[in-house]
């Protein structure tokens, strides 16, 4: 296997651009990284009613259709390796169990990328992921916290679980520069669970600063939230800011940004805040993108944040401690040395999560699985 240099073709099953979700963005970036290495990438996109113009897309999976499930398997079988992105909510059936039938129909090795590991799954959720893991050639997780939770809570051979970090596109120039009016930034798809209420609630405590900060909440409303309740959640947040007297300091921006525009927005932020409600989140692409762009980060104590920020790239606060959040924000806004030090640590982490490095890891894993299959054929 050490001399195995063939670049295997890769089929990816996932949501995909232009679908507005982190998984689609992740898969598009991974496909781009693999293609840049000369690897043929073919995507079976989970249909959402919006067509994709991407040349990588060779088919669509229509959830709830047995014929589409079978066609998805066959399309993936035309490649040397299949990369299956796993989230419970993106596939058809109870807890997305249709994905089990897709993997069962594969004749090529499967890499399953596990984006969410539930600490307290329902019996059926545990069963679905257990079957997926049993059928996979290996499972990729993006943090040590995810690996530990997966191995402890699910029936999986630990040897099959590989850590490859979430990729990011580090900016070329991420030097931290204090702004005239500091910007606190939370970004990503907006919906309940993002915890932006925590930051809105403490903004009044920061208005006594010589240069009071503004809080920029950037990102579209999550498509599922939008379909269920329109912009009621966003409007409720704006009303909350007005009631607290900080409406002029809380800005909502639903503009869709290209990777370059996103990097510019990140560079303009004094601090990125991830105030998520979850205490179990083991993967956060927003966290990795923020680190890769050299931003100091404040996050609630979800596992991925605790793991990534523990070396000084940011600050972790308890979920239910508004005073700690206020103190952390005040310190980073008023102390450029501390903010600059955190940003410098973040920059040292950026090379290890660059998409070319991450794509190399996936390519090597694909080569290994294909070589193992050939060796046993």
UniProtKB/TrEMBL annotation:
Entries under InterPro entries matching the protein: Glyco_trans_1 (IPR001296)
UniProt keyword list: Transferase
MF GO annotations: glycosyltransferase activity
Coiled-coil residue spans: none
All residue ranges annotated as the Glycosyl transferase family domain in the record: 181-344
Pfam families per UniProt: Glycos_transf_1
Official protein name in the record: Glycosyltransferase
Protein source organism: Mycolicibacterium gilvum (strain DSM 45189 / LMG 24558 / Spyr1)
């Amino acid at each position: 296997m050490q001399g195995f240099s063939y670049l295997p073709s890769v089929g990816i099953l996932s949501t995909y651009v232009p679908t507005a979700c982190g998984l689609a963005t992740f898969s598009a970036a991974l496909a781009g990284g693999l293609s840049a290495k000369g690897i043929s990438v073919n995507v079976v996109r989970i249909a959402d009613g919006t067509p994709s113009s991407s040349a990588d897309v060779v088919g669509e999976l229509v959830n709830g259709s047995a014929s589409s499930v079978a066609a998805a398997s066959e399309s993936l079988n035309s490649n040397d390796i299949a990369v299956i992105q796993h989230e419970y909510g993106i596939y058809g059936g109870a807890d997305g169990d249709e994905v089990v039938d897709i993997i069962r129909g594969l004749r090529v090795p499967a890499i399953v990328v596990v984006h969410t590991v539930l600490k307290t799954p329902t019996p059926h959720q545990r069963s679905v992921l257990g079957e997926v893991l049993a059928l996979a050639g290996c499972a990729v997780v993006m943090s040590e916290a995810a690996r530990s939770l997966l191995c402890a809570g699910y029936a999986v051979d630990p040897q099959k679980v590989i850590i490859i970090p979430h990729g990011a596109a580090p900016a070329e120039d991420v030097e931290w520069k204090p702004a005239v009016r500091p910007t606190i930034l939370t970004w990503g798809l907006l919906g309940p669970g993002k915890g932006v209420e925590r930051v809105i609630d403490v903004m009044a405590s920061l208005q006594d600063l010589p240069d009071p900060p503004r809080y920029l909440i950037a990102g579209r409303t999550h498509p599922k939230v939008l379909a269920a309740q329109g912009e009621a959640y966003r409007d409720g947040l704006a009303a909350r800011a007005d009631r607290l007297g900080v409406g002029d300091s809380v800005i909502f921006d639903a503009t869709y940004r290209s990777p370059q525009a996103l990097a510019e927005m990140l560079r303009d932020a004094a601090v990125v805040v991830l105030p998520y409600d979850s205490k179990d989140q083991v993967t956060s692409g927003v966290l990795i993108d923020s680190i890769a762009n050299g931003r100091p980060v404040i996050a609630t104590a979800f596992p991925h944040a605790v793991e990534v920020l523990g070396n000084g790239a940011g600050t972790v606060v308890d979920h239910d401690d508004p005073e700690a959040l206020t103190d952390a924000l005040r310190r980073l806004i008023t102390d450029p040395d501390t903010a600059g030090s955190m940003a410098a640590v973040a920059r040292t982490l950026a090379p290890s999560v660059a998409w070319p490095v991450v794509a190399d890891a996936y390519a090597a894993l694909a080569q290994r699985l294909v070589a193992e299959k050939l060796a046993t054929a």
